[in-house]
Automatic annotation (TrEMBL):
Its cofactor is FAD. Keywords: FAD, Flavoprotein, Oxidoreductase. This is Butyryl-CoA dehydrogenase. Residues 6-117 form the Acyl-CoA dehydrogenase/oxidase N-terminal domain. PANTHER family: ACYL-COA DEHYDROGENASE, ISOVALERYL-COA DEHYDROGENASE, MITOCHONDRIAL-RELATED. Residues 229-377 form the Acyl-CoA dehydrogenase/oxidase C-terminal domain. The lineage of its organism: Bacteria, Bacillati, Bacillota, Clostridia, Eubacteriales. GO terms for molecular function: flavin adenine dinucleotide binding; short-chain fatty acyl-CoA dehydrogenase activity. InterPro entries: Acyl-CoA_Oxase/DH_mid-dom, Acyl-CoA_Oxase/DH_mid-dom_sf, AcylCo_DH-like_C, AcylCo_DH/oxidase_C, AcylCoA_DH/ox_N, AcylCoA_DH/ox_N_sf, AcylCoA_DH/oxidase_NM_dom_sf. SUPFAM superfamilies: Acyl-CoA dehydrogenase C-terminal domain-like, Acyl-CoA dehydrogenase NM domain-like. Residues 121-214 form the Acyl-CoA oxidase/dehydrogenase middle domain. Gene3D superfamilies: Acyl-CoA dehydrogenase/oxidase, N-terminal domain, Butyryl-CoA Dehydrogenase, subunit A, domain 2, Butyryl-CoA Dehydrogenase, subunit A, domain 3.
Amino acid sequence: MNFNYTEEQLMLKESVRKFSENEIAPLVKWMETEKRTPWDLIKKIKDLGWCGIQYPEKYGGSGNTYVEYVIMQIEMARVYCSTACTISVNGMLGANIMKFATEEQKMKFLPEHLNGDGIGSFAFTEASTGSDPNALRTTCVRDGDEWVINGEKVFITNASLPGLMGIFCKDVEMGGKCTNILIPKGIKGYSIPRIYDKMGMHGLEVCDVLLDNVRVPYENTTGGEAMRGKGFEVLLGSTQIGKLSVCAQAVGMAQAALEAAVKYSKERVQRGKPIAYFPTIQSLIGDMATDVMVAHQAVLATAFKASEGKELASDAARTRLFTSEAVHRVASKAMQVMGAYSYTTEFPIERIFRDAKLTEIYEGVNEIQRLIAAADLLR
Ligand SMILES: Cc1cc2nc3c(=O)[nH]c(=O)nc-3n(C[C@H](O)[C@H](O)[C@H](O)COP(=O)(O)OP(=O)(O)OC[C@H]3O[C@@H](n4cnc5c(N)ncnc54)[C@H](O)[C@@H]3O)c2cc1C
């Protein structure tokens, strides 16, 4: 067992950190105001190969593992979580294709998905499905060589941007079983009636999607005939990777909050000395540093397991539960350290506090993660 980063991993960490500080940070104010991500930024990240980090070279990836993937996600989220998340949703659709598509589909879709002019979406949620997969209403009906898709998805990230979408449908001929289909966004019958105005994660474009007689080739069924009606397998397998991304984002934000609080505590003077001298501040920072350390180690261990292709359900749920609650605690304590200024937009901590809340909600609420975390023990 080796807990050290390799030379290559250290170089990756350094280059993502530099890129995030030099290229993402200056755009944050704009993204927070305009509530979107400039396409040029996504393109730059794609050109650096970071959308393909965890995929084999033969599919257009860089042949690394999920450990490198989480290193990239942590560093990006440390600067701006919305950008990390825009990229990670692409990664979740990539996991969908990589784990479940046929070899032919991987060769056809992955190189463009990882390197081309688009960013992926993963469309499961509907008005009634939230935490209840059986409430799926969007239908797919086979018509000769095509699928005809009808329905409405809600809260779909990146849906306003071009690229591929993996969509979960009720397969009418299969008695309503779930089937996953790959569709190009923006095709005839595809529209986005709403882009959400959110509490945080302002750089992330999250939309409702209307599907009105959308037609795609039948051969776009993820995994082909063998996977028809097995959409829930696709959902569970892909969201484990989605959860890993959320964990990495939580660690990146927690790290940023800790760094901000430490810096502030050394600079802010009260009663003639920096507040870092007060035991109450030391205690807050001690708690925060502990959460950051444990969360960081947990996410790397889960990423290592993901890279080995091991079953991830319990680990992903437990790591997600811990890291999301850890970043919540850390962001809140950082605000206590930084007092009134933390509540202003002069410091990034108020944004981190808002963005961090999402890690307890999306990719399955924490109440559901608790159930998954206990499931294998109670079987
Ligand atoms: C910014 C953002 C981006 C998103 N991006 C995507 C995306 O790209 N693709 C996508 O498909 N979805 C996406 N989502 C949707 C997200 O994954 C769902 O919102 C999430 O799974 C929770 O569903 P819900 O909000 O409908 O909660 P509900 O299911 O309505 O749950 C509400 C509350 O009820 C409780 N609860 C519900 N069911 C149970 C249960 N079985 N046991 C115990 N308690 C329960 C929990 O406390 C839960 O918090 C996104 C959401 C947001 C906010």
